[in-house]
Automatic annotation (TrEMBL):
Boundaries of every GerMN domain copy: 91-183, 243-331
Record has Signal as a keyword: yes
A Pfam family assignment: Germane
Organism: Paenibacillus urinalis
Positions in coiled-coil regions: none
Keyword Membrane appears in the UniProt entry: no
Name of the protein this chain belongs to: GerMN domain-containing protein
Length: 351
């Protein structure tokens, strides 16, 4: 049973093809800024009135992860619980959180904002679990964005929705019509959108017809001083070991302004081995750390997140050895020498 709470319709549909990384309109920077909202939007005001007439409390949704634009113009996952809005399902609420100046704008952490144009409304979402497909219909306000914002909008919607276990493919509709390309810059969408489009795309110097995408996780700090992770997709030469290629990119460090290195360029990736039970064992070496030193959590978690996102299974267990030590204690006091999985919720940043 899906966790969506639930007006979501269950239907049957034909199978869909996975879309590769799209390179048209690939700017990841948005010129639109969040507008302040003096009064609560009508839909949120209605929820507040209902709460006042009831038990005085607004019902919180289940915790969700949405992809918001940070202070550097990059998309980052942010996990939060939001008040339930009238007539919106869980998955519809997650999309409503992406609207700039929308119903949830007052709940965004400092430095983060939604990327959908102000006034965008989620008219309907239909989820087909058998096809792992979400069909999303927006109103016409969805089309009122600048050309350079197009790719980021696609990424934010796709990565937010595909964080749900019942969704791997996304179709976009506007006012009753299916979009085969984005409405402003014409980025093609073929049958559906998947995480194969990448996120915060960094083309680098490796762009070729046979390039392969990998997604790595760097670190950043919010204006309030809270550390969080930012995914970046890079194009690399095809390899038989995608996880190893991704970790090599993680070691190279970020190229986008504001992102912080999580591994040093002196770090050696000694091996990446997948066991019979699917556990991925990663052996690292860096003389900067001596035996017994706690390893920064952001370093270890970035490795776990990167491995999980490139292994083909988000639930992959990851085991890390460091400088030949089997016990690897992070600054969060967790032992990463034992198999761990990607956290269910990433970047729980306070308002």
């Amino acid at each position: 049973m899906s966790r969506f709470h639930r007006k979501v319709k269950m239907i049957s549909a034909a199978g869909l093809l996975t879309v590769p990384v799209l390179l048209t309109g690939c700017s990841i920077l948005s010129s639109q800024t969040s507008e302040s909202v003096d009064a609560p939007p009508p839909i949120l005001e209605s929820a507040m009135i209902q709460a006042a007439e009831g038990n005085g409390e607004m019902v919180q949704t289940e915790q969700m992860t949405v992809y918001l634009k940070d202070q550097n113009g990059l998309l980052a996952p942010v996990s939060m619980s939001l008040p339930a809005l009238p007539d919106l399902t869980f998955v519809e609420s997650s999309l409503a959180a992406l609207v700039s100046g929308g119903a949830y704008s007052g709940y965004m952490p400092d430095g983060f904002t939604g990327v959908l144009p102000q006034g965008t409304e989620v008219m309907d979402v239909t989820v087909t679990p058998e096809e792992k497909l979400a069909v999303v219909e927006f109103n016409s306000k969805f089309t009122e964005y600048m050309p350079e914002e197009e790719r980021q909008i696609m990424e934010a919607v796709t990565w937010t929705l595909t964080g749900n276990p019942d969704i791997q493919n996304v179709q976009l509709w506007v006012d009753g019509k299916k979009l085969n390309e984005m409405p402003v810059n014409g980025t093609p969408m073929a049958q559906s959108l998947t995480r194969g489009i990448g996120i915060n795309l960094d083309l680098g110097n490796h762009l070729s017809t046979n390039s392969s995408p990998v997604t790595v996780y760097f670190s950043d700090e919010s204006p309030a001083g809270e550390q969080y992770y930012v995914p970046v997709t890079r194009l690399v030469e095809p390899s038989t070991n995608r996880v190893e290629s991704a970790l090599s990119e993680l070691i190279k460090g970020p190229e986008s302004e504001g992102l912080e290195m999580v591994l040093t360029t002196a770090t050696l990736l000694e091996s990446v081995v997948t066991g019979e039970d699917g556990t991925v064992s990663v052996a690292l070496k860096d003389e900067m750390f001596t035996e017994g030193d706690p390893i920064p959590t952001e370093l270890l978690q970035s490795v776990v997140l990167t491995v999980a996102d490139n292994s083909g299974n988000a639930d992959t267990k990851v085991q890390i050895t460091f400088n030949d030590q089997q016990t690897v204690i992070g600054t969060d006091e967790q032992n990463y020498g034992e198999p761990v999985t990607k956290p269910e919720y990433i970047n729980e940043i306070g308002i």
